Each structure stands twice: as structure tokens, then as C-alpha cells.
Amino acid sequence: MFSFGIDAERLTELYGTGGKLDDYIRANIPREHVEFLRTLPVMAYSERFVFVHAGVRPGVPLLEQEDDDLLYIREEFFEASRRLDRWVVHGHTPIGFPRLDGRRLDIDTGAFRTGRLTAVRIAGKSGRLLFS
């Protein structure tokens, strides 16, 4: 959010959490950016990988996944990490350092509070973590 001139930690000190803070943030992010973000798919996938915010519901074909699961699922997805049919790269659950568990890779290093954004570059059969 720094790219929009928004220091969420400082604003939380000023406004607390909730309505006033949300209103301030929404007023300072350009409408075009919000509209662009809303056009993005909730999930991207290939034969070997799935890229999603939170995870996938185990046993449900990719094209039948519910958006709520893709955005919020945790426990059922974590428990099935070794039974997934492809690699799932996800966030939603902040951790100190990216973690590979079975066939899921959590790359959420809590950028909203740590300032450390993590990504992964995948080429062929290998991947490389990238940190801000």
C-alpha cells in the first residue's frame, strides 16, 4: 500500500480498525486500479501448477472450485497437501519464511505487516524464491 502513499500501520494508530480506516484506504486507491484487480481471475493453473490466493478444496476438480474456497480455505487444504494432483502456490496464511509442505507452497510472508513481499519464479522443473 506504500505505492499509494498509504502507511497502514500508521493509519491504524490514527483511525483504529474498521470503518474510518477502510474509508481512507478506499479513497486513496485509484478506481482504475480497483477495477483492474476485479477483472483478474481468482485462480490460474497449468498441467503442473495452480496459483491461488488461499488454496483448493481437495477432491473437487479445478473448474468446479468455489471462489470462497479459493479465497479462504485453510485446514482441509493443508491436511491434503500430500495428496494434491499438482503443485499449489498460495498465500492467505502468513508465515515467517515460504514453506513447502507436500505439494503446496505457501509464499505469504505477510507483506501487509512486514513489508516483505515474496514471489516464486518457476522455470521448467525448478523454482526460485524472490524477496522484496
Overall description:
The chain has 132 residues and is an alpha/beta fold. It contains six helices and seven strands; from the N terminus they run αααββααβββαββ. Strands 1-2-3-5-4 form a five-stranded mixed beta sheet, with no helix packed on it. Strands 6-7 form a two-stranded antiparallel sheet. The protein is globular.
Form type: globular
Percentage of residues assigned to helices: 25-40%
Q: How many E-type strands?
A: 7
What sequence of helices (H) and strands (E) makes up the elements?
HHHEEHHEEEHEE
Q: Largest sheet at a glance?
A: 5 strands, mixed
Query: Helical segment tally?
Result: 6
How far apart, in Å, are the first and last alpha carbons? 14 Å
Radius of gyration: 17 Å
Neighbour order of strands in the largest sheet: 1-2-3-5-4
Beta content = 15-25%
Low-confidence stretches: none
Estimate the mean pLDDT confidence. 92
